[in-house]
């Protein structure tokens, strides 16, 4: 791989692309915090902050106009690399970074239903590198982006935020369900956990947002013994994720808090960790499995401790940004 001017001068932008207009409150977690964690670690490694973290109106207006005009962006091989975090398809926010150097895009939420929009972004922004958090996305786009170096860079997390040493048996909530529900799992879980006389947290029409901010979300996960996790390809078949079962940030939140993951463990997570970091629970047998887990909860402590240890080796932002930094500098490869 050709080396680039990145060591100690890796330009990067805090001009992030957000797919949610709402910051707080909402079900789940704050995109802003996750992007901040990613960018903070790039800076820690020596990346140079570029641009205003709060995009100026003029830049946004010009970016909108350029994205509508679809003016091709020339690739400047002799310029430093600009690392841009993208969550979703908002090409206007690539301005002005795309015009001031080579681009390295770090992309969350690249789904098959958005193929045409991503094609347009890649065609006009001409990135040098693209890092996808989804292995399916990396495998799909690699043969289509002939002049781009494409890598799988799995989701990562700042584990210190979620650190919890309270044993599973001593936690206040038995089961936590966040985000989109798997309806078959949920219906059985409600009945099973109620019969067990244990605490079960999930959103309702009356309470659509379980946690008002990131701090309370983290506290909620830390207080939960078990968290259900299913990929979007299962909870919303035919939706934007298509048939791409992908490890998401939710799985890593549970792992970082030493909370037992139950549900469906995507293959990319098994490959990343080197073992199955949770308990497979078929939705049609959720009640049966949850009763069994509750009856011997302390026996799962060794598993969550093992998962937590492995997380620090393969899925922290410290690990991931070093891989990205090394790949761009030509000194190290990321997972393919």
Strand and helix map with partners:
Elements: E1 11-13, H1 31-44, E2 48-50, H2 57-69, E3 81-87, E4 102-108, H3 115-125, E5 129-132, H4 135-141, E6 149-152, E7 173-176, H5 183-196, E8 200-201, H6 214-222, E9 224-229, H7 232-235, H8 249-256, E10 260-263, H9 267-273, E11 279-280, H10 286-295, H11 301-314, H12 317-329
Parallel strand pairs: 1-2, 3-4, 4-5, 5-6, 7-8, 7-9, 9-10, 10-11
Helix pairs in contact: 1-12, 5-10
Short account of what is shown:
The chain is of the alpha/beta class and 336 residues long.
Characterize the structure shown.
By secondary structure, this protein is an alpha/beta fold. The protein folds into two domains: 11-156 and 316-329, 3-Layer(aba) Sandwich (Rossmann fold); 159-314, Glycogen Phosphorylase B (Rossmann fold). It contains twelve helices and eleven strands. The protein has helices at 31-44, 57-69, 115-125, 135-141, 183-196, 214-222, 232-235, 249-256, 267-273, 286-295, 301-314, 317-329, and strands at residues 11-13, 48-50, 81-87, 102-108, 129-132, 149-152, 173-176, 200-201, 224-229, 260-263, 279-280. The protein has a five-stranded parallel sheet with strand order 8-7-9-10-11. Strands 3-4-5-6 form a four-stranded parallel sheet. The protein has a two-stranded parallel ribbon with strand order 1-2. α9 (267-273) links the parallel β10 and β11 (279-280). α1 (31-44) crosses α12 (317-329) and α5 (183-196) packs parallel to α10 (286-295). The longest helix has 14 residues, at 31-44. The chain is elongated and about 65 Å long. The two termini are 14 Å apart. The model is unreliable at 1-29 (pLDDT under 50).
């Amino acid at each position: 791989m050709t080396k680039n001017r990145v060591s100690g001068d890796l330009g990067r932008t805090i001009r992030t692309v957000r797919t949610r207009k709402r910051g707080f409150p909402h079900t789940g977690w704050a995109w802003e915090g996750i992007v901040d964690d990613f960018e903070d670690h790039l800076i820690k490694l020596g990346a140079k902050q570029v641009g205003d973290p709060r995009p100026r109106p003029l830049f946004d207006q010009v970016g909108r106009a350029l994205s509508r005009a679809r003016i091709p962006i020339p690739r400047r091989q002799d310029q430093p690399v600009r690392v841009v975090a993208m969550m979703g398809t908002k090409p206007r926010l690539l301005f002005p970074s795309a015009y001031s150097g080579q681009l390295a895009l770090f992309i969350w939420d690249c789904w098959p239903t958005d193929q045409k929009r991503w094609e347009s972004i890649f065609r006009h922004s001409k990135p040098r590198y693209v890092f996808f958090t989804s292995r399916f996305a990396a495998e799909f786009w690699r043969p289509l982006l002939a002049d781009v170096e494409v890598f799988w860079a799995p989701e990562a997390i700042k584990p210190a935020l979620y650190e919890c040493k309270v044993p599973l048996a001593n936690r206040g909530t038995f089961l936590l369900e966040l985000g989109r529900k798997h309806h078959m799992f949920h219906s059985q879980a409600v009945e099973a956990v109620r019969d067990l006389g244990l605490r079960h947290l999930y959103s309702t029409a009356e309470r659509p947002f379980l946690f008002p901010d990131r701090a309370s979300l983290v506290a909620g996960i830390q207080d939960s013994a078990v968290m259900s996790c299913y990929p979007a390809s299962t909870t919303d078949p035919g939706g934007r994720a298509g048939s791409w079962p992908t490890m998401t940030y939710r799985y890593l939140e549970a792992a970082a808090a030493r909370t037992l993951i139950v549900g469906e463990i995507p293959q990319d997570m098994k490959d990343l960790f080197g073992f199955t970091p949770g308990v497979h629970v078929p939705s049609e047998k959720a009640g049966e499995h949850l009763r069994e887990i509750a009856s011997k909860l302390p026996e799962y402590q060794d598993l969550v401790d093992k998962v937590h240890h492995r997380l620090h080796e393969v899925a922290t932002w410290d690990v991931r940004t070093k891989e990205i930094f090394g790949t761009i500098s030509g000194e190290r490869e990321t997972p393919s």
